[in-house]
Amino acid sequence: MSEGRLSFRGGAPRPAPDRPTTILVIDDHPIVTQGVRRLAETAGIRTVHEAADIVSGYRLFHRHRPDLVVADLSFRDDGLSGLSLIRRIRALDAQARILVFSMHADPVLVSRALESGALGFVLKDAGPDAFLEAFDAVSAGRGYLPHALATDVAMLNRSARPAPLATLSSRELQILSLMSQGKSYEAIASAMAVSYRTVINASSSMRKKLGVESRAALVQIAVNRRATLR
Questions:
Q1: How many angstroms separate the CA atoms of 80 and 177, rounded?
Q2: Are 68 and 23 in contact (CB under 8 A)?
Q3: What domains, with CATH codes, occur in the chain?
Q4: Distance in angstroms (rounded) separating the CA atoms of residues 215 and 184
Q5: Using CB atoms within 10 A of its CB, is residue 38 exposed (0-12), middle (13-18) or buried (19+)?
Q6: Is the pTM of this model over 0.85?
Q7: 204 by DSSP, 3-state: which?
Q8: Any residues with CB less than 8 A from the CB of 55 and at least 6 apart, and which?
């Protein structure tokens, strides 16, 4: 979005027969969290839990088991840690219903979010009606993608020559995102709670997939892609 382009205005709730009673919003921008809360309350949601990072988000999910999770993909210095959060929540509860609410329109990231376990994906520059449409679909256990994103993801998957980043795993995308911030391998391992060797191996794998021979060249790709990955 821009964090505040969604217009949250009061008014009578839009009719919807099966909306959840509890949701969890995980986003590190207070204006987004407040906006989603207002829209959810207008839609008749009784309880809205909020978290500003993936650790507290996971803990709140574990404690309250909300009917629906609305989560971003990017969290300040943790890169695309929302992808790992989605996987952790789905590992805890295979029936968890997760809607990604993100400013990322890159079909690679959308595809990875769905592969990680999200049921739907809606952009932060969408209007309230689009958000509620996504909200209702995921609440009912249906998938949701805006038409343009669905087309881009379909073309990505059907392409004989996929985009270079499409060959990377979710973990590799997160490591690349952290590399774009200038983090060392040690810092990346600490941020992701994985071993140093795991990061080294992932870096080697990415160099092969992206056709570069050095860490410096990989970092340059990360920096060039930072507008998409951050």
A1: 7
A2: yes
A3: 22-156 (3.40.50.2300), 164-229 (1.10.10.10)
A4: 11
A5: middle
A6: no
A7: helix
A8: none
For the sheet with 47-51, list strands across it. Answer: 47-51, 22-26, 68-71, 98-102, 120-123
Q: Is 49 helix (H, G, I), strand (E, B) or coil?
A: strand
Quick one: DSSP state of residue 129?
Answer: H
Residue owning tokens 């989560």? 71
Instruction: Report CA-CA distances (Å) from 196 to 155, 193, 200.
Output: 35, 9, 6
Residue tagged 């217009």 (tokens)? 7
Dist. CA 34–CA 37, nearest whole Å: 5
Q: Are strands 22-26 and 47-51 parallel, antiparallel or unpaired?
A: parallel
- Residues 54 and 28: beta-carbon distance below 8 Å: no
Strand partners, 149: none
Neighbouring-strand partners of residue 144: 120
Find out whether 170 and 110 touch, Cβ atoms under 8 Å.
no
Structure tokens at 87: 């996987």
| Residue whose pair of structure tokens reads 């609440």 in the numeric block | 139
Tens-digit pLDDT profile for the chain (230 aa)? 334 444 444 444 444 446 789 999 999 999 999 999 999 988 889 899 999 999 999 999 999 999 999 999 988 766 778 888 999 999 999 999 999 999 888 888 898 899 899 999 999 988 899 999 999 999 999 999 998 888 888 887 665 555 677 788 888 888 888 888 888 899 888 888 889 999 999 999 989 888 888 888 888 877 776 645 54
Q: Which two tokens stand for residue 177?
A: 């995102």
